[in-house]
Amino acid sequence: LSVSLDPYLLTIANNKKNCILSLCPGASSTGATPSEEMNGTGNLMDFLDEPFPDVGTYEDFHTIDWLREKSRDTDRHRKITTKSKESYWELIKSLLDAWSGWVVMLLIGMLTGTLAGVIDLAVDWMTDLKEGVCLSAFYYSHEQCCWTSNETTFDDRDKCPQWQKWAELMTGHSEGAGAYVLNYFLYVLWALLFSFLAVSLVRVFAPYACGSGIPEIKTILSGFIIRGYLGKWTLLIKTVTLVLAVSSGLSLGKEGPLVHVACCCGNLFCSLFSKYSKNEGKRREVLSAAAAAGVSVAFGAPIGGVLFSLEEVSYYFPLKTLWRSFFAALVAAFTLRAINPFGNSRLVLFYVEYHTPWYMAELVPFILLGVFGGLWGALFIRGNIAWCRRRKTTLLGKYPVLEVIVITGITAVLAFPNPYTRRSTSELISELFNDCGALESSQLCDYVNNPNMSRPVDDIPDRPAGPGVYSALWQLALALIFKIVITIFTFGMKIPSGLFIPSMAVGAIAGRIVGIAVEQMAYHHHDWIIFKNWCRPGADCVTPGLYAMVGAAACLGGVTRMTVSLVVIMFELTGGLEYIVPLMAAAVTSKWVADAFGKEGIYESHIQLNGYPYLDVRDEFTHRTLATDVMRPRRSEPPLAVLTQDSTTVEDVETLIKDTDYNGFPVVVSRESERLIGFVQRRELTVAIKTARQKQDGVVSSSVVYFTEDNPQVAEACDPQPLKLRRILNLSPFTVTDHTPMETVVDIFRKLGLRQCLVTRSGRLLGIITKKDVLRHMAQMMNQDPESIMFN
User: Fold this and answer.
1) Could you list the residue ranges that cross the membrane (predicted)?
2) In 248-359, where does DSSP find H-type helix?
3) In which band, very low, low, confident or very high, does the pLDDT at 521 lie, cut at 50, 70 and 90?
């Protein structure tokens, strides 16, 4: 029998009593006589009383052992608590250790908020740079340029002498076909330049800086190691290229990548504190809080950020992490508010003020928007995954720069003629959310006014739509089709790309169209039974902007399958606390409809596509299989690679390590009995033997390795020194019997974060089940390719 343990997924568990690696002493190293050492009366050498760099760490593309990390932190905390009673200095050190978590949260919040503010300011400027430049200060965006102008009027607040479009600056003419063509050409040229710089920087300096980052963050928080994904270069390049990618006008957002940026900040500050840098479990608590800070600054939604981390991203979220996530999100929001990138003295991105309440009859169109959001979510996930799979399996994947350039060119060429796709997506959503007041100059607010109307400015009755509204509806319909199609091909390219804002834009466009349709029906047919009870003639009944907000929530929910955090983010994003019920109805409906076509959201789908070893706690396993059906080795495979407790030589161990890629080995009494003793980790075994050869005299290839509790006896003086490795042996590996239902095994792997468990019968070792074996079996039971879970 043999067990195939993939190096990506298998390392071994370590009991808290066995975290320190010690080796059997050699005579010349301790000062004790050989007889004292062999009888256990001398001072035994401990080579690993001071931890070595390789002990307790994990290799790249491996899964951490949550139980082991928790045990190590408990030991560390107990040691600090004991020492704190010895002196005032140790007491101060214990207090500093206790406060280090809050210090890390403070630093994460400040840096994340600062980077988000800088990104917002840079995106505003570079987006406007595609259309023109400010003569008074080239680093001003269009809005900032006209703020500083003394010649700006309220009616023409978007026009000022200091801001000139490129055609006007170059030719002196702002109107005409020639000026339009020149502005068109330069718009496309700037977009191509920005996207080319973004994909080139990612490709050359930080390949991990591409994409949203949330699927990988979810996988890392579940315990997987991806070295460099949260590194300093990734942080720098992702920040710079995120500005370039969003400014290029592609159908993507910065909200998802900001979660990645925040987690990079968290990982950076973890390296300053040994409490987090040396414990992967504690590090992931910090990263969960950093994810909350990322959403907090992305949307100006601190509470929504905490709930997003809890509902969507985190795998292990203790109560302590909840408090610290709240604090990190709070600090990040304060920092962003101090920078004030939106210039409106508010933290929220799309602040709205509606003057009309919603009515029960409007739940029908709200639920229909939820159905649309669910259908859009299912369509987008299937289309995007099919395109990304094609990218992986064809020549398309070999030319990422060309793909980005082509998609950018198509996007820019099609977007410029339509004013609703030419502007930035955030500006588009903001306009769609807005209510039409008396001072609004938007084309969407071109209604036919009653000259005899004498009402307050903020209580305008429903009015018939003017030609501007009908023209805007056609442009919005074209923009909707364009956004639906182009977003499918944009998400997943080798540049930073978020999905929140494009999804919200699709929903907001659809919602605004539905809102205007309901508004006009209520105006022209107020005597219909559905309007009769709540909409009187001349009253302000329907708010189209509210429908846009509900549609945005529905589409975002359909794509990501968020519910609670989505609703909280939406009302924090807009300040529309009064409209929680419509948002909840749309979010729940979109999730139900989307789940009918597939349970996985876009992030889970990309995790499956990339083959990350992620056990989703929301998946149900209902098949009637047993541990013996899944364990390795199978009947046709070689025997299980094991070590014996007192008959294996150093040469045997080194040969086993060299010839296999397993990350751990069960230790048995003998090969005949196969009675399980414990489990030893490959990395710690390698380090122990290497250290023993360097520091312990008499250890040679023929030295016998002992895992027994008693000190080994040397029969003759000429015999080589034995090597005792009891302390690296995990004496309590997790075991199940061969008749344990796989439903229970899967639940154990999820809730305890196991990497493997051993299968026994009456104390006799039969085999092993790894996390990868569990994932393979689950894929097989769902009629999927079992090898699809290979990290790819």
Assistant:
1) 99-123, 184-206, 286-310, 322-339, 359-381, 401-420, 472-492, 499-518, 546-571
2) 255-270, 274-277, 280-299, 302-308, 319-339
3) confident
